[in-house]
């Protein structure tokens, strides 16, 4: 009986060791997979995108489909990888945390490249260059930047626009008051209701909010380069995405996409 127990214990030990070895081997195999290999295994790449920026990332209320140049770029990258693109809506406030928490693989959401942000995230070569501007009411009497002296400017929370405005005010010798709001539709509503005197963000974004009672001032400031962002540690995916953006540029495909949405790249200015 004792001999049987010893044999059984020995078999149990061997089985446990074999299981642990198999698990360890599996873990090592998973760890050795590149970022793109993992994406291919999952059959999808998850992008953080905007849903309130016409022409870039916008959710069509009639079809519930996402549309815009950034959606098209994301779909092309996914197709090249042989996977589908999944989309997670983000704001200027949430796009960073969603990347940090691995809830998205990459963010393509009018994410302006800055030296400060490059300390935290990887960015691809810019796929579009814009400049910030102002949306005002046509009957406001505001026709130039200097007319905004002492006025309240609405900006999106956690955006880089406020930094550019502060530099502009200093350069012009004027002063702005600021109202930081959650998103672009809220900013447009605030302009319409008179809570703010101007809505400031990149001009191509403003173009999606122009109506018969508003206009974009001719003057622009603070050129904004948009790149696809990834976690700082995910250099392999960052390199892959950068290569794909450069390929879209060199092939002329990227220009076709921006032309499709009538977007004017400010890098040519």
TrEMBL record:
InterPro entries recorded: Bact_solute-bind_prot3, Iontro_rcpt_C, Solute-binding_3/MltF_N
GO CC terms of this entry: extracellular region; membrane; outer membrane-bounded periplasmic space
Residues spanning the signal sequence: 1-21
Annotated GO biological process: amino acid transport
Keywords: Signal, Transport
Record-annotated Solute-binding protein family 3/N-terminal domain positions: 44-265
UniProt domain Ionotropic glutamate receptor C-terminal: residue ranges: 44-262
SMART domains: PBPb (SM00062), PBPe (SM00079)
Protein family according to the UniProt entry: Belongs to the bacterial solute-binding protein 3 family.
Organism this protein belongs to: Pseudolactococcus plantarum
GO molecular function, one term: ligand-gated monoatomic ion channel activity
Name of the protein: Glutamine ABC transporter substrate-binding protein
């Amino acid at each position: 009986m004792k001999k049987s127990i010893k044999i059984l214990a020995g078999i149990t030990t061997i089985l446990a060791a074999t299981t642990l070895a198999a698990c360890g081997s599996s873990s090592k195999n998973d760890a050795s997979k590149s970022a793109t290999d993992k994406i291919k295994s999952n059959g999808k790449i998850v992008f953080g995108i905007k849903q309130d920026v016409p022409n870039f990332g916008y959710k069509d209320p009639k079809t519930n489909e996402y549309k815009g140049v950034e959606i098209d770029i994301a779909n092309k990258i996914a197709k090249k990888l042989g996977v589908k693109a999944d989309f997670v809506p983000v704001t200027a406030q949430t796009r960073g945390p969603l990347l940090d928490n691995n809830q998205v693989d990459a963010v393509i959401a009018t994410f302006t490249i800055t030296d400060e942000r490059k300390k935290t995230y990887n960015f691809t070569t810019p796929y579009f260059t814009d400049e910030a501007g102002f949306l005002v009411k046509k009957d406001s009497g505001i026709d130039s930047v200097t007319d905004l002296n002492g006025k309240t400017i609405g900006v999106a929370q956690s955006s880089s626009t406020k930094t550019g405005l502060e530099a502009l005010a200093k350069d012009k010798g004027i002063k702005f008051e600021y109202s930081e709001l959650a998103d672009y539709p809220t900013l447009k509503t605030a302009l319409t209701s008179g809570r703010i005197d101007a809505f400031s963000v990149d001009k191509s974004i403003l173009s999606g909010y122009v109506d018969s009672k508003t206009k974009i001032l001719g003057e622009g400031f603070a050129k904004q380069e948009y790149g696809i962002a990834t976690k700082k540690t995910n250099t392999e995916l960052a390199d892959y995405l950068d290569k794909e953006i450069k390929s879209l540029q060199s092939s002329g495909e990227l220009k076709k996409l921006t032309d499709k949405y009538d977007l004017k790249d400010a890098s040519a200015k």
